[in-house]
Design a protein that fits this description.
Number of helices of chain A: 23
Number of domains of chain B: 1
CATH topology of chain B: Folate-binding fold
Mean pLDDT of chain B: 95
Number of strands of chain B: 6
Largest interface: A-B, 24 and 26 residues
CATH superfamily of chain B: Folate-binding superfamily
Oligomer: heterodimer
CATH superfamily of the largest domain in chain A: FAD/NAD(P)-binding domain
CATH topology of the largest domain in chain A: FAD/NAD(P)-binding domain
Strand content of chain A: 25-35%
CATH class of chain B: Alpha Beta
Strand content of chain B: 35-45%
Low-confidence stretches of chain B: none
CATH architecture of chain B: 2-Layer Sandwich
Mean pLDDT of chain A: 93
Structural class of chain B: mainly beta
Largest sheet of chain A: 7 strands, mixed
Radius of gyration of chain B: 14 Å
Distance between the termini of chain A: 92 Å
Bound molecules: zinc ion
């Protein structure tokens, strides 16, 4: 295939490297340095897709980030990515892309029948049509919208690519490497400032790549290349291409997405696909340039209609003619510059200028080249369906209201220029209150909110000379503040052609009897008539008009449509544009891959995994693990073909009959030291702590100030001023913060230090009637008899040469101990326990058996201490001291907390002694009552009681105290179960607690 | 993301801190009779004001100190930061 629209010479592409690629299954060729868009245009392909709502044929409108509709589905190295702008995607060997929004093909699109049948979906169509009847939503409306909508299909496969995050700090961050960015970077770098210069395109230089100017006796492009080359040699400067700063956040934090690998056929080994930079900058120079804005006319979405700046860029950067019979439609001198470039390559353009007359150096040059110029002329409508074939043109009156006789002229593209819109997105995101600049009919940044300055075209300054002067100066001054260096920079001499005043004309009136669609927003298919409808229906705020019509929404964020939309509203409403105001610009400025946002935090890296020192032992012994917060804990140790139910039942039973060992390393541990440690505990816990002797442990409950139980656990007095606190696994971090809060802010007079020791100690719970016999063998030199180490006693012991802490505490309700050793000895301890315990038939048990044991004993845990219960609800009111004050005590006097029928923990047994009750089931009096059936309580935890061999649950039940013996129903609509149950005591096993003391 | 000057560690990003609410709230003294209204004010009632606000943050992934931050809730501007025991003038 020949590249019919590629000129012989010129452009910045590498003609020595030919690349093949596929679009919609057909093979084409381009060159290294092309974008997908330039390569397709070189092959004469203008039809790229179908529009979002009406499925009208769509081509290329821009040449970069300004492109509203040339969006494709990309295939690269076995992966696919939607929402890729063809104008930004660099060509690589083997690239494959497909159109979106077309079915069955881009050339024959069924959805487009809507267009021919004139079933145009007007503004608010979705709101009005799809609201009723409700039952239609899932069956009819939603599938229809889903099929019609969407700019591609996301892959459902795991993404093999890697994405990185980087945090960076700098003195000056510069967004955009056009003349302003280069000058600012150069001046600041010369002053020794740490500079980051970001450019979203592959090539640095911005407008200098396409404009016909001279800087310091070089072409603008050569000057830019020289500056970049010098900046790259400086150690205090980072220059990044393919890097888009897309968000400006608080305290001068900006986020940049660097496309590391998208221009390559596949990502290099050890390279990320994209890198997201979080940059904290002392100062920010926004040099993001400007985007040409369209003039609105009939059928202005026809492929072949594009911005005149884009046509020039395709020619000067890529050596591509977007047409051989171009029609240039302009209201300012920029259109002439494009026409001049066409003429230089032997193509004869026709220029329609809406102005009656204009004079400037640029226009003179065009005239001297013999370009056909028609003043007071406009394009009324483009003709042609899949490609521009001709244009209806007409003269226009001075007041721009009357069209002359319509003539038709042949053309194959229409290059349109409606003047320039500064790119103020970043400044606006920063909080800058923008202001309307009358001379350019556009908004520019106003008062800076953060340390940001906007210069050059982004600030509405289109003179190169002025831009360079202000930018060199700003670079010097901003850096001088930081580095205190003041190196003079010689400002180079600039040669540029002067322009004449543009015409404040943006929309061609409809000729009589015609109702051409005149599009404002090409991405969202919003036409002039849609905005008119919205205003007619009473929408006034520009924010409401935006949402009702979708003008300026989605990934485009109104880059080309915003101002024309405002012009229209201001005309209809008879207000000036600044009175209409503009909608809020939100990050991201341009789409960012979800992968880049997520970074490395995927799969196992999405959160840390904490493992106990005994983890590898558990693995070797067939533990089935469960997530407990970020910890991995053995749920049960699988033997043969056992399932969870069988395995946990076996383990729990062995604890009740012999002895079991459970890894309790995950419990939160806090070391508390200082002369006021007892006083702190006394204020934090609900019960009394001042008289706890050394060598004793005590169970405690702590509340939040609102009276809700925060956590429970045991704390042991290790020595006079030294305590060891345990917390639940889940609350460990919160309890530490809680203690620090009171010590640092509320009671700084208390002389106490707290520190987390969770990871310093490995813990093993040894539980069961034979646990003392086992302990005696583990610690032959210690007296662990009931007298030597009574219930809630503590001692230190020698575990085969390793110092151990031994606590006689029990969560299982059996005679039990907890042994702690320093973490490095955790595995040693565990193996010794297993080895010595063999003669007592020891078995390790996991969290499931642990739960079973505590549930049937009626011990509360996280499912009861759920942030909604007070001590009474958990039958813990016996632990509330009447004599002393403590955190949250005052709240317990609240009327709801002392109500007679207050909720309370109970036990629940199914009447059939067979059916397990799903956790979360509601308890109701009458299972046949009409909905909503009044809820009396809920099942908080369920197990299979190994003691009685039937299901048993705990529940928090209204008036639970007086409900023992009642028959209720447990209902679980989720599991579709209704189970008749009896309410019993929560202490199902050993209600007197004799075993733990035995 | 806010950039907070921890009086102990220096400038650090917000993701190292956790928020602790209004710093002007004073816990009633222990063992003191407190009316329902006073207690409600302490536990629940907050002004949620727009503008300058003295608030608590804990440098949880740093020095673990609770600090006071004077911040504008509308603009996010941070004026001053204080150690826990520093008096705010
Ligand atoms: Zn700190």
């Amino acid at each position: 295939m020949t590249q019919a629209f590629r000129i012989e010479n010129g452009g910045l592409i590498n003609r020595d490297k030919k690349l093949s690629f596929k679009f919609n299954g057909k093979t084409y060729f381009g060159y290294e340095g092309d974008t997908l868009a330039s390569a397709l245009l070189a092959n004469g392909v203008h039809l790229i897709g179908r529009s979002f709502k009406y499925h009208r044929p769509r081509g290329f409108f821009g040449a970069g980030v300004d492109e509203p509709y040339a969006v494709v589905q990309l295939y690269r190295n076995g992966e696919t990515e939607p929402n890729i702008k063809a104008t930004e995607q660099e060509l690589f060997e083997g690239l494959e892309a497909k159109s979106v929004n077309c079915w069955p093909s881009v050339n024959f699109d069924i959805g487009a029948i809507n267009n021919f049948l004139k079933i145009f979906l007007p503004a608010g169509f979705y709101y009005k049509t799809f609201m009723w009847p409700k039952s239609f939503w899932y069956r009819i409306y939603e599938p229809f919208i889903r099929k019609a909508a969407g700019l591609g299909v996301a892959s459902t496969k795991h993404d093999k690519e890697r994405y990185e995050h980087k945090y960076e700090y700098c003195d000056l961050l510069i967004a955009g490497s056009g003349p302003s960015g280069l000058a600012g970077a150069y001046a600041a770098a010369k002053n020794g400032a740490k500079v980051i210069l970001a450019e979203d395109k592959p090539r640095f230089g911005g407008s200098l790549l396409t404009s016909d100017v001279n800087i310091g006796n070089q072409s603008g492009k050569d000057w830019a290349e020289g500056i970049i080359a010098e900046l790259k040699t400086m150690p205090n400067v980072v220059v990044k291409n393919r890097s888009q700063i897309f968000g400006y956040y608080d305290h001068n934090m900006l986020v940049m997405s660097e496309k590391v690998s998208d221009h390559l056929p596949s990502t290099k080994k050890y390279h990320p696909n994209k890198r997201l930079w979080y940059i904290r900058a002392k100062e920010v120079l926004i040099s993001s340039g400007s985007i040409e804005r369209p003039i609105v006319f009939g059928n202005n979405d026809t492929p072949g209609v594009m911005l005149s700046s884009a046509a020039k860029e395709y020619l000067k950067v890529y050596g591509v003619l977007v047409g051989r019979k171009p029609l240039v439609f302009t209201n300012n001198d920029s259109g002439y510059e494009t026409a001049i470039e066409f003429k230089k390559y032997g193509v004869d353009p026709v220029v329609l200028d809406s102005r009656k007359s204009a004079e400037s150096e640029i226009i003179d040059e065009a005239k001297n080249l013999g370009i056909n110029i028609k003043n007071s002329y406009v394009v009324v409508a483009a003709q042609g369906y899949k490609k521009v074939k001709s244009a209806d043109i007409a003269s226009i009156s001075d007041d721009k209201k009357q069209l002359g006789k319509i003539e038709n002229i042949q053309c194959d593209c229409i290059c349109v220029s409606g003047f320039w819109t500064p790119t103020i997105h970043l400044a606006s995101q920063s909080g800058n209150k923008t202001k309307f600049k009358e001379e350019i009919d556009a908004f520019v940044p106003g008062q800076s909110k953060q340390n940001e300055i906007t210069l050059g075209a982004a600030n509405g300054v289109f003179s190169l000379d002025e831009t360079l002067k202000t930018s060199f100066k700003a670079g010097s001054e901003l850096s001088k503040k930081i580095t205190e260096n003041n190196n003079e920079i010689a400002i180079p001499n600039v040669v540029e052609k002067k322009s004449s005043q543009h015409d404040k004309f943006w929309c061609v009136p409809l000729p009589k009897g015609k109702n051409y669609k005149r599009f404002l927003d090409f991405q969202n298919d919003v036409a002039v008539s849609d905005v008119e409808i919205a205003l007619r229906e009473g929408y006034r705020s520009i924010e409401h008009v935006k949402r009702y019509t979708t003008l300026g929404m989605a990934t485009d964020q109104g880059k080309t449509s915003n101002l024309n939309g405002l012009q229209l509203v201001s005309e209809i409403e008879n207000k000036v544009v600044p009175a209409v105001g503009h909608t809020t610009f939100r990050p991201p400025y341009t789409p960012v891959s979800i992968g880049a946002i997520v970074g490395r935090e995927v799969g196992k890296h999405s959160k840390p995994t904490r493992k106990s020192p005994m983890h590898s032992w558990h693995e070797k012994n067939n533990a089935v693990f469960v997530d407990a917060g970020v910890w991995l804990r053995p749920r049960y140790y699988k033997r043969g073909n056992e399932n969870l139910f069988e395995g946990s039942k076996r383990e729990a039973k062995n604890v009740r009959t012999n002895v079991g060992v459970c890894d309790v390393t995950t419990l939160g541990k806090i070391d508390i030291k200082g002369p006021d440690a007892a006083e702190l505990l006394n204020r934090v816990y609900t019960n009394a702590w001042l008289k706890l002797p050394v060598g004793k442990a005590r169970y405690g409950v702590m509340l939040r100030e609102d009276g809700i139980v925060m956590d429970d656990g045991t704390t042991t007095r290790i020595s006079e001023n030294h305590y060891h606190m345990t917390t639940t696994t889940a609350q460990a971090a919160n309890v530490l913060s809680h203690l620090e809060y009171y010590l640092q802010l509320v009671w700084p007079e208390l002389n106490v230090n707290v520190v987390s020791t969770t990871e310093q100690w490995a813990g093993a719970a040894i539980a069961g009637p034979k646990s003392r016999d086992l302990l005696q063998k583990l610690f032959p030199n210690s007296d662990v008899s009931n007298e030597g180490l009574p219930f809630m006693g503590y001692m230190e012991g020698d575990l085969f040469g390793v110092k151990a802490r031994i606590f006689r505490i029990s969560f299982s309700g059996e005679l039990a101990y907890e042994v702690n050793v320093e973490s490095d000895y955790g595995n040693f301890m565990w193996e010794k326990i297993i080895e010595v315990g063999e003669e007592f038939n020891i078995q390790p048990y996991g969290t499931e058996a642990l739960s079973t044991l505590r549930i049937e004993m009626g011990h509360v845990a996280g499912s009861e201490l759920d942030g909604r219960t007070i001590p009474f609800d958990n039958a813990l009111e016996g632990l509330i001291s009447k004599k002393k004050d403590f955190i949250g005590k005052r709240s317990l006097q609240r009327s709801a907390f002392i109500a007679e029928d207050r909720q309370r923990i109970v036990g629940v047994v199914p009447l059939d002694k067979q059916t397990s009750i799903p956790e979360g089931s509601h308890l109701v009096k009458d299972d046949k009552a009409p909905l909503p059936n009044p809820k009396l309580g809920h099942i908080s935890a369920s197990c299979w009681s190994v003691e009685y061999d039937n299901p048993f649950s705990l529940a928090i039940l209204k008036d639970g105290k007086n409900m023992i013996g009642q028959k209720l129903f447990a209902m679980s609509p989720l599991k579709n179960k209704v189970i008749p149950v009896e309410i019993v005591s929560s202490h199902y096993v050993d209600p007197k607690g004799e075993r733990v003391r035995s | 993301m806010l950039y907070i000057n921890c009086p102990h560690c220096g400038m650090r990003s917000q993701n190292e801190f956790s928020y602790g609410g209004d710093a002007s709230v004073k816990r009633p003294e222990l063992n003191k009779e407190v009316s329902d209204q006073e207690w409600d004010n302490f536990v629940y009632n907050r002004k949620s004001l727009r503008g300058k606000h003295l608030e608590l943050w804990q440098h949880i992934s740093g020095c673990r100190q609770w600090i006071k931050v004077e911040r504008d809730t509308a603009t996010h501007e941070i004026f001053r930061t204080f150690k826990a025991d520093e008096e705010v003038a």
